[in-house]
Amino acid sequence: MRSRRTAAVAVLLLGPLALAGCTSGGKGGGGASGSPGTVSRGTNPLQNPDGTKPGLAPVTSDTDRQAGRDLIAKVKTADPGPKTGYDRDQFGPPWTDSVDGVPMGRNNCGTRDDVLARDGKDVEHKDGSACVVTGMTIWDPYTGKTVRWNKQQASKIQIDHVMPLSYDWQQGAAQWDKGKRVQIANDPLNLIPADGSQNASKGDSGPATWLPANTEVRCSYAIRWAQVSLKYQLPVTPADKKTMLSLCGG
Fold first, then answer.
1. Which one, of 218, 240, 32, 21, lies nearest residue 119 by Cα?
2. CA atoms within 13 A on the CB side of 96
3. Residues 137, 120: contact at Cβ < 8 Å?
């Protein structure tokens, strides 16, 4: 079910991109491009610094790889602190809309549905709802495969926190106030819908110990890590930074 309200929000979020041919009814844009039936391979992270555009496209040019290395070079490093006291509840209720200071917060739709609609094409909603996503087609950057997803197979596509919350906790979020932790847990910059088995295998790993199976997006993945790290002033481990640089040719 598509709604006028949903389409209007997509235009507001994506501007010219939405007007240029995105056909999804999902709020935040569907990420569609090209001929009908084509699913977008997402957006170059360098062109998506706030995470409101769809997906995570491969970074392929030497210029963009250099820009990625320059960005990653700004990331600070620190050894991880203890995981003592970490609990998912420290970052607020999962996918809460009650979050200030991040795109899509307080728009009357939960974060999970916002992000699914942002990245999906031919998005379907629950009858009577402009928010609850029940079906879509999506290109999964972590495997490089196009997936037809529906809510009856909810675990097939999961929402990955690019910088895992327990990693955040150990790198400094343990000292934050609750409001800032809720922000990073629901910030679209830190969220990528991806294959469920990939998300499960990642756990709370950094880039030095886990990377997406799709090698084409590994530089993009490193850039997104850097974007989240810099936005929230969270350091990464020295090993993770070294790996991030190498992924973009450094």
1. 32
2. 16
3. yes
